């Protein structure tokens, strides 16, 4: 009887072991088949995102051509090439207390700066950051948005301490950085052409944004004069020039992307007769809307675009900037999970939520140096609810981060080279030590180290010898200080200061 039981148990155990082994084998076979699919999808994506030097040179050339076309006539190019009305950049002589207000990304900032002229420069500087609720950014009204801004500004002004000095009887003045495409009517007024970067509030389009802000400030009981309305690229250029006279252009690589540069006034045909032939003018390119057949656009990008708030627009921005990189990654992972069982037999439901993977999380995964890619594992668990990712899965994620980020960084470098070409600064001129400094601001450039390094390396690849005289410089919060500086140079009291 005992023997019988033991015998039966042995047979039974053997059967179970055998069954499990078959199951495991079947699963392994299935997995290796699926894994082949994962790798095929990866390879295909990598090929479609490729940016060999030849292609980048074509992109740079196309950028130069489009710049020319946008300057030649209104609507002549996807690049708007907007006149900023900034024709004299900061000199260092600016003095006094000025405020700046910066709207354009997920956060908005208020700032006050005490400027001390050539000797003392920036005497004191305070900043407050406020995040913009989603329901204010999209679907609200002009009044809701501007009341939100004016209230935050009023609260900030109320905390002004004794180390800031406003001469008696004077009105406070402000530089307003509004980082969207604006048709400027003067240095301190302009109408919104369209929203970008996930903002969408219908009744602001076509309105003078300074007028809207002024009304809201009045409602908030705040007496502040808007002395300058600037794009963040223009603010960054002004802030950059204040610190370094060789700054000739500014680039934003943050939630969105854009560039501004200093153009010779006579090179702006659409403004002939309106601008003095001598002198310079800062141009806000709105390069985020750049488009060219040379751009490596994949089906993932196309779908992202179709489902976005602004389909068909800002294509360059949608493959480069911080708002979108994480979302591109999510889309590729989702397809790999659906069609090639990347995460096993199920598709994590979180993976289907648009914008759930943010670029800072992607950056953290991309920079994971641990042997078992622990950071990647934790992010997959916390954000996508994938509890037990294998090392193989994690490696795929890192490879995707690399493909997406390199494409964005390399295309940004090509854009900068396009500007240098337009200005005749892309080649090394013997004996002429012409330095070109590009001031760059934005969290993508500042915090995503691999993006930044790749951009800089690509500049070298594209420029050869001329790379030595081209400097890409981080201009941390250049746009806020720049707006305050431009408010100073357009102050209603400038003549009093000079006399
Ligand atoms: C978007 C805006 C542009 C801004 C850029 C960076 O492209 O349209 O005006 O400069 O984002 O913030």
UniProtKB/TrEMBL annotation:
Domain Hexokinase N-terminal span(s) in chain numbering: 42-242
Record-linked PROSITE patterns: HEXOKINASE_2
EC numbers on record: 2.7.1.-
Domain of life, per lineage: Eukaryota
Catalytic reaction annotation: D-fructose + ATP = D-fructose 6-phosphate + ADP + H(+); a D-hexose + ATP = a D-hexose 6-phosphate + ADP + H(+)
Pathway: Carbohydrate degradation; glycolysis; D-glyceraldehyde 3-phosphate and glycerone phosphate from D-glucose: step 1/4; Carbohydrate metabolism; hexose metabolism
Record's keyword annotation contains Nucleotidyltransferase: no
All copies of domain Hexokinase C-terminal, residue ranges: 249-488
Transmembrane segments: 6-25
Keywords in alphabetical order: ATP-binding, Glycolysis, Kinase, Membrane, Nucleotide-binding, Transferase, Transmembrane, Transmembrane helix
Family: Belongs to the hexokinase family.
Protein name: Phosphotransferase
Organism annotation: Solanum pennellii (Tomato)
Organism phylogeny: Eukaryota, Viridiplantae, Streptophyta, Embryophyta, Tracheophyta
